[in-house]
Design goal:
- Chain B: It catalyses: [protein]-L-glutamate 5-O-methyl ester + H2O = L-glutamyl-[protein] + methanol + H(+).
- The complex is a heterodimer of chains A (279) and B (187).
- Chain A is of the alpha/beta class and 279 residues long.
- Helices cover 43% and strands 19% of the residues of chain A.
- The relative contact order of chain A is 0.13.
- In chain A, α1 (5-24) packs parallel to α3 (52-61).
- Chain B is an alpha/beta fold and 187 residues long.
- Chain B is built from 6 helices and 9 strands; from the N terminus they run βαβαββββαβαβαβα.
- Chain B has helices spanning 13-23, 43-53, 104-115, 132-140, 157-166, 174-186; strands spanning 4-9, 32-36, 57-60, 71-74, 80-83, 89-92, 119-123, 144-148, 170-172.
- In chain B, α5 links the parallel β8 (144-148) and β9.
- In chain B, α1 (13-23) packs across α6 (174-186), α3 runs parallel beside α4 and α4 packs parallel to α5 (157-166).
- The termini of chain B are close together.
- Classes of the chains: A alpha/beta (279), B alpha/beta (187).
- At the A-B interface, α1 and α2 of A face β6 and α3 of B.
- The structure holds S-adenosylmethionine (SAM).
- S-adenosylmethionine is lined by residues 74-78, 82, 110-112, 116, 139-141, 144, 201-203, 217-219, 222, 248 of chain A.
- S-adenosylmethionine (SAM) binds next to loops of chain A.
Chain lengths: 279, 187
């Protein structure tokens, strides 16, 4: 029986992912296949190559090509106070709980260029909780982390961020937290005092701290079911008893192994609380 | 045997999808996954209206959900919908395609990759160019393609482009499409 063109491409795709893992240590083998295939076929078209097999040769031997390719695979789209309703719900339903803690530790996984991290820091500051909070913000994309550390963003986006901030229940003005210079804004160093930005790969690295709160929004959607479960296990192991897990608004525990391991704090905003018996 | 229908519509699509759905006979339960370019604020009311008035269970597509008969899935606003080989749904916030997110092309292409000839692609009214390339992929990989007749569609640009680019199997008036789907899925 002859194989369909797309089935041959699937074989090539699997071989390519294996090759990348062996050469570079980045493990994309359990990312969403449909998503990977789209990105890879796009790059194929752009670079005038005929088959994924030809591309594999370039990826193994031409590091510059690999760098471009890696960019294709990482989606860093993010914004400040993305899904403002989520932050409003967080303020209302999670903050009261956090207030009772002597010390708060947060793991912000897949933080991309950091806009979300500064959003959380601002929210915590307004609730007078920032001083007693330690935030670990991680991503496996070093370029994104570099931007996150700087805390400098384009002024073009700031109107949207300002709207989001207000909609999220912001208490002052977003401009209280940054200084503008030329076309950029620089977020206040007092916000990042307790933030550590670090390189961490959710697929291949393990638990590195025990935390009260895990923020991992819009990252799991790029993974297949198996990998989602693996990463959710990592979060469960990192969370303290009754720790809180925040996912993206279109992500959920519903079709995973962890559905019955958490109670729901806000079903629409995907805020969960680890059940005491969950390890 | 057809396993699923993918459906795309843009300007004028709310009305067109509603009419199409209401014309499908009760024994037609083949899963349908749709991208409709529609604002964030109207989708909830629209879906619950469709759900109430049809035999399908109409819902927003959820991340990693299995695709099942009797269900009619809509892409959530601002997310692409992709279909995986194991007949589950993935969502993504990748950049816009054809200035659209959700994009019809993304749904159609990934559906074609996983379902080959077990797929029907249907493109309705709209005033942009989304869906044409996706429909072409469906056709190339053995699926059946239907485009709403541009002459009678509410907005003709989208079906017209699709006809040109994908050379669909059928070009039909909206009211004929339900019958064609029934016929094709009964085979
Ligand atoms: C779409 S962004 C989400 C950013 C932010 N959390 C938000 O919701 O706005 C996804 C991020 O996940 C990161 N990511 C993807 N795979 C990863 C992995 N295996 N380990 C760590 N980070 C990963 C990407 O680099 C990217 O920055």
């Amino acid at each position: 029986m002859s194989l369909h063109k797309t089935e041959i491409q699937d074989i090539e795709l699997n071989l390519l992912l294996q090759a990348i893992y062996m050469k570079y240590g980045y493990d994309f083998r359990n990312y969403s296949k449909a998503h990977l295939k789209r990105r890879i076929l796009q790059r194929l078209k752009l670079s005038g190559l005929k088959t994924i097999t030809e591309m594999q040769k370039l990826i193994l031997w031409d590091t510059d090509f690999y760098k471009i390719f890696l960019k294709d695979l990482s989606i860093n789209v993010t914004e400040m106070f993305r899904d403002p309703d989520f932050y409003a719900a967080f303020r209302e339903k999670v903050i009261p709980d956090l207030r009772t803690y002597a010390h708060i530790k947060v793991w912000h996984a897949g933080c991309s260029t950091g806009e979300e991290v500064y959003s959380l820091a601002i929210l915590l500051k307004e609730e007078n909780l920032l001083e007693k909070t330690q935030i670990y913000a991680t991503d496996f994309n070093k370029n994104a982390l570099e931007v996150a550390k700087q805390g400098i963003y384009s002024k073009k986006e700031i109107d949207l961020y300002d709207q989001n901030y207000k909609h999220a229940g912001g208490k002052h003005k977003l401009s209280n937290y940054y200084t503008s210079k030329y076309g950029s804004v620089l977020f206040d160093k007092s916000l990042s005092k307790n933030i550590v930005f670090a390189d961490h790969n959710l697929v291949t690295d393990g638990v590195f701290a025990e935390v009260n709160l895990v923020f991992c929004r819009n990252v799991l959607i790029y993974f297949d079911k198996k990998l989602q479960n693996k990463v959710l296990r990592l979060f469960s192991e990192s969370l303290t008893k009754r720790g809180v897990l925040c996912l993206g608004t279109k992500e959920s525990l519903r079709f995973t192994d962890f559905d019955n391991k958490y109670s729901v704090i806000d079903s629409k905003m995907k805020i969960y609380k680890k059940l005491p018996e969950t390890k | 045997m057809t396993k699923a229908i993918v459906l795309g519509a843009s300007f004028g699509g709310m009305e067109a999808i509603k009419n199409l759905l209401f014309m499908l006979p009760a024994q037609c339960t083949i899963p349908i996954v749709a991208v409709l370019h529609i604002g964030n604020n109207t989708i909830d009311t629209y879906l619950s209206m469709l759900n109430k008035n049809s035999h399908y269970n109409v819902k927003e597509a959820e991340e990693k959900e299995s695709i099942k008969p009797g269900n009619f899935y809509f892409a959530p606003p601002n997310y692409h919908v992709l279909i995986e080989d194991n007949f589950t749904i993935s969502l993504s916030t990748d950049e816009k395609v054809n200035f659209s997110r959700p994009s019809i092309d993304v749904l159609f292409e990934t559906a074609a990759w996983s379902l080959h000839n077990e797929l029907i692609g249907v493109l309705l009214t709209g005033s942009n160019n989304d869906g044409a390339n996706g429909l072409k992929t469906i056709r190339e990989l053995g699926g059946t393609t239907i485009v709403e007749n541009p002459e009678t569609a509410f907005a003709k640009t989208m079906p017209e482009t699709a006809v040109k680019i994908s050379h669909p199997h059928f070009i039909l008036d909206l009211k004929e499409i339900a019958g064609k789907i029934t016929e094709l899925t009964n085979e």
